[in-house]
Amino acid sequence: MIVGYARTSTLDQKAGLAAQEAELRALGCERVFIEQASSVKQRDILEEAIEFVRRDDVFVVTKLDRLARSVVHLWEIVERLKAKGVTIRIVGLGIDTATSNGALMLNVLGAVAQWEREMMLERQRIGIAAAKEAGSYKGRVPTARRQSAEIMRLKGEGQTVPQIMKALNVSRASVYRVIQEQTADV
User: Fold this and answer.
1) CB 65, CB 74: distance < 8 Å
2) Active site members
3) pLDDT tens track of the chain, all 186 residues?
4) Residue 138 belongs to a domain
5) Are residues 14 and 99 in the same domain?
6) 155 in the same domain as 73
7) 3-class DSSP state for residue 3?
8) What are the helix (H) ranges across the chain?
9) Stated pTM of the model
């Protein structure tokens, strides 16, 4: 069986997710697992997909960064799939671990991908340090605080914290922080 996995980091990337799904289905994937989650968070659908595949299945992703966040993570996934007798196909790179060349290329590209990410993070740190030194660094915009009024409205309507989290796509800590800040002002 050919099994596909599609992922985007945010809910705003619906078009990218739809494109991945369409490509995977066009490639003959009989089952496609779809997830909208950051690569650094727990990805339950990826876990479900890995559990689902069986010996001689092919696990397909459109791009390497949709699958793993680092070389270490990539190898954890590769080893788990290999232990189950499953091969991996990364369409955008023309890699298929069913071949020895594909396995070699996956090793090389995984290392390059991690290097590229580390270089990007280093450039980001340098840019942030320069902005702080210039006094122009403002940091990340707090997303939950922008929704303070909505959080308090839902709380006032009797919604539970988990319901508010789900409705607004914010973390438990953010909901409690907003509630604490808003009630401390009273």
Assistant:
1) no
2) 9
3) 999 999 987 655 677 788 999 999 999 999 999 998 776 678 899 999 999 999 999 999 998 888 887 777 888 898 899 999 999 999 998 999 999 999 888 878 777 877 887 898 999 999 999 999 998 887 776 777 788 889 999 999 999 999 998 888 888 888 998 888 888 755
4) no
5) yes
6) no
7) strand
8) 14-26, 44-52, 71-83, 100-134, 143-146, 148-156, 161-168, 172-184
9) 0.59
